[in-house]
Amino acid sequence: MADAEPHIRSLADLGETIAGELGDMISSREIINGELVLHAQRDSIVKILMFLRDDVNCQFKLLMELCGVDYPEREERFDVVYCLLSLTQNMRVRLKLSTDEASPVPSVTGVYSSAGWWEREAWDLYGIYFSDHPDLRRILSDYGFEGHPLRKDFPLTGYVEIRYDDEQKRVVYEPVNLTQEYRNFDFLSPWEGVQQLLPGDEKAEAAEEEGGDA
Q1: CB atoms < 10 A from the CB of 51, how many?
Q2: Distance, CA of 21 to CA of 18 (rounded, Å)
Q3: What's the CATH number where 81 sits?
Q4: Can you give the residue range of the structural domain that contains 98?
Q5: Average pLDDT of every residue of the chain
Q6: Considering the entire predicted model, what is its pTM?
Q7: What value does the CA radius of gyration of the chain take, rounded to a whole number of Å?
Q8: Which of 18, 96, 19 is nearest to 57 (CA)?
Q9: Is the pLDDT at 7 greater than 60, yes or no?
């Protein structure tokens, strides 16, 4: 724990420096699991990342990851998370902003070229739109795919299924057709859920009754 304290103090000092330079562009900051987390204003994300990349006290030259997170109960249901690494300072920082389905997030491909594919992934899987992206299109799912499969309200079965039709000699898309109806399971153990009377027991009871009458 003693070894971690200087690192935590360094992160706290860095967070204070960044907040002092960027002002209202950073809405809040905190340290979580030994990592500095900054909450950013959506429209200022490009300026913030340029500062974190170029400032002598930061030098976060590497964008290690960009991803989306879905909180459907919130008004702004999506978070966009940027994970940065500074080899010079030997530090990491995580930047977060929130948005909804209609509000675009400025693309940061002009700051980090690696953001291009990750922004496409967030668009494909969550439907988060990045304005000024040079080539915003699906990257993991098919071009004709409907919906965004990592949203919490996206059905596990999807909306369509794909198969090769031998008669048409091509791949076809069809609405999902579940071959088995939904069943309720009691999730009891074999000892708890076993039937008291097994099929066929009624025949044995009838034979015993006939023998008794005789």
Answers
A1: 17
A2: 5
A3: 3.30.460.80
A4: 4-213
A5: 87
A6: 0.76
A7: 29
A8: 18
A9: yes
